[in-house]
Write a structure and sequence with these properties.
The chain is α/β, with parallel strands linked by helices and about 280 residues long. The protein folds into two domains: about 130 residues, no CATH class; about 140 residues, Rossmann fold, CATH 3.40.50.450. Helix content is about 35%, strand content about 25%. A seven-stranded antiparallel beta sheet has the order 1-4-5-3-6-7-8. It is elongated and about 70 Å long.
Length: about 280
């Protein structure tokens, strides 16, 4: 492969500022490594984007460039597996594609031997703001196209407010709403069960890195493409703690403009989290 691939850098427009857990960087420019005109490359890029839309593959603009020269090639970050990326690259007569998995960039040859070369971290190889993603995510980013409502509740909650939370959850299902939460406290978990059973859209924000496996009760919404998981933590933050729970709650509140807070216990961590947000929001 061309040695220039080994020191590639990227300019990207991440979807909603979030970095997908896994995606490929593919271009249609300069087939077989031969330089063609800017006009011809622009037409190939338009054709490539049309194909991605027809295939229903989520994609976002990414330009790969060589920092040691003025050479750059526009393309796309494509949410697909390695085999699909390899096939698309071959279809556009590319020498190689880049696969990004959990922030690690690997160069993959499109030739028959499929040579793979680890290159480093996306956050080191991308320019700002793509080098500083707001969060990492897995699942349908399309759930962020419409406003989501944050749901939070303290661990201790009076019975009457629990019933109101359940009623609110059922209403979100009836109206096709999207709810974002850590779903960590007992009432939050109960609300999650209602949302999962009754067809609402769910954005789960764990107080840690993206989980490797999903709880059984979340498989139906995952398979129905109405569950997205996002994390504002670095890869490797594997254990939730009081500090990460507070950071997660503040992220959720700042990320959304609509909040339904079922109950905040006095002197609780959630009381501190919401107090900081509301103090910050005052003019």
């Amino acid at each position: 492969m061309n040695p220039a691939y080994h020191h590639a850098r990227f300019r990207a427009q991440l979807p909603h500022g979030g970095l997908p857990e896994s995606f490929a960087v593919i271009t249609a420019c300069n087939p077989e490594g031969k330089t063609i005109s800017d006009e011809a490359n622009a037409e190939r890029t338009r054709q490539f984007e049309t194909q991605l839309r027809k295939l229903g593959l989520i994609h976002f603009p990414v330009t790969g460039y060589d920092p040691q020269s003025d050479h750059s090639e526009p393309g796309f970050g494509v949410l697909c597996d390695e085999a699909t990326a390899h096939g698309i690259g071959n279809g556009y007569l590319q020498e190689a594609v880049f696969q990004v998995r959990r922030n690690q960039v690997t160069l993959i040859s499109c030739r028959q031997e499929c040579e793979q070369v680890p290159l480093g971290k996306w956050t080191d190889m991308a320019t700002a703001p793509a080098s500083r993603p707001r969060f990492h995510f897995r699942g349908p980013v399309s759930l962020l196209e419409n406003p989501a409502t944050a749901f939070l509740c303290s661990t201790q909650c009076p019975a009457d407010k629990i019933l109101k939370a359940y009623e609110w959850a059922r209403l979100q299902c009836d109206e096709g709403g999207t709810v974002i939460s850590g779903f960590h406290t007992p009432v939050e978990k109960d609300v999650l069960a209602i949302l999962a059973r009754r067809g609402a859209n769910i954005i789960w924000v764990p107080a840690r890195d993206l989980p490797k496996t999903l709880p059984k009760e979340l498989m139906p919404p995952w398979e129905e493409q109405r569950l997205m998981i996002l994390s504002p933590f670095d890869y490797g933050e594997s254990r939730p703690s009081r500090a990460t729970c507070s950071r997660r709650n503040r992220f959720i509140l700042e990320f959304t403009s609509q909040h339904f807070i079922a109950h905040v216990s006095e002197n609780s961590a959630l009381a501190a989290d919401t107090s900081q947000l509301f103090i910050k929001a005052k003019p």
